[in-house]
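for the writeup, i need someone to sanity check this before i put it in the appendix. the sequnce is what the collaborator sent (i think, or maybe the updated version? ugh). structure was predicted straight from it, no edits. if anything looks off just tell me and ill rerun, i have time this weekend
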Amino acid sequence: MRTIKFDVPTKSTVSPENKAILEKIEAGVGFIPNIYATYALSGSALGRYTAFANGKTSLNNKEKEVVNLVVSQINGCTYCLAAHTTIGKMNGFSEAEILELRKGTASFNPKFDALAKLAKSVMENAGKIDDPVLENYFDAGYTKENLVDTIVAIGEKAITNMLHNVTQVPVDFPEAASLAQVEDHHQ
């Protein structure tokens, strides 16, 4: 059991630079997600992270959510699973599709399937993936540019997964079902 508690900073307790970033996030999302406020425990991490996370990429929003869901599941991040279940639905994925993506497959879309399998393999093997996984990714229509952007997206999501897994700040998105709970209901 964790005895060290991490309080979520507020706009009034962070630096002026972080306050401005949090206000911009609040204006866009409607509230300040606890994980972003937690980045503001550092004077520079929130700005560095948001620039990284919001940077240009060759992946579209649905493809980014495929990566986010796979990576967050593997890392067991309850915060990011909750957030990206919500965001995945906003991007047009059904609950069933989101649950399947979390397992690292997408039978409903061959291109997303190749992306999910690549992301899962990269995470589970620290990037030391087998050629068939990479060939499947390229055969699905992805390019070497997409590959680099996919690996960057994996790293970006892993950072937030680790931040939450260490700090355990409260999840302020609707809870995502655990895969075990879902599988128990389908048996």
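The chain has ten helices and no strands. The CA atoms of residues 84 and 182 lie 17 Å apart.
thx in advance!!
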